[in-house]
What does this fold into?
Amino acid sequence: MKPGEPSFAVAFGGGGARGLAHIHVIEALDELGIRPVAIAGSSIGAVMGAGVAAGMSGKAIHEHCLSVLSRRTEVAGRMWAARPGTLSEVFGGLRFSQFRVDRILDAFLPPEIPRSFEELGIPLQVTATDYYGHHLAVIADGDLRSAIAASAAIPAVFRPIMRDGRLLIDGGIYNPVPFDLLHGMADIVIAIDVVGAPVDDGRNKPNSIELMFGATQLMMQSITAAKLKFAQPDILLRPPVSNFRALDFMKIEAVMAQTASIKEETKRAVDAVLQTKTASG
It folds into this structure.
């Protein structure tokens, strides 16, 4: 961006593997020469946001995700590295019936993502849910990896994260698309919603796990809809992600192919809002 041009802030929403579609938006912004001045992220959006805030390009994020997620042997090896370290951790995990999301992130995150917020080149806010405090937790300093882990700690899949004396779970529970955190931080706020919705694919009725994830999608949709009644981002992007489930990470090539249209949609939306602001300014 050149001096005097409008500044941009980006909110990357949560949605599990559906959030791989964020990569198209990041690549579009790169091609437009747009570097955000502030970022907020929830769940997978916290992961993507951390990559951008650390200085990674969309191309670099894309290549890392493909190199890791498109090969079963690579995924298996990293999951093995993320296995419980002690017998007590195994049985501790059984008590929650969840994986250690912090170990999994350490095994899968690119090395460019640092250990602390203070090492990032762009200010980042990460959302989590304070389980016993009954409110949204916004983390913007200190240990970055534990913040991302907390934001991505999907209930019944990953064990909650203890941080600063608080038990934290998935940030999408309270704020699936945290564009409101960026109010006043840039001239233009872009929000990317990758929650999706349950789709009737004509198969048998959904099982209990599928119902749980689908109900969570509906809850997140209702939260975002309520927020949009009071305030809206300048650009709201919704990639076509509903055909994918939260844990479909190994379907990365299909996700990227089916959501490719969002890249040009991003460019058109940015051009439209810039023209509007130029005309009104």
User: Anything to note?
Assistant: The radius of gyration is 18 Å. Confidence is low (pLDDT under 50) at residues 86-97. The first strand starts at residue 8 and ends at 12. The chain is about 40% helix and 15% strand.
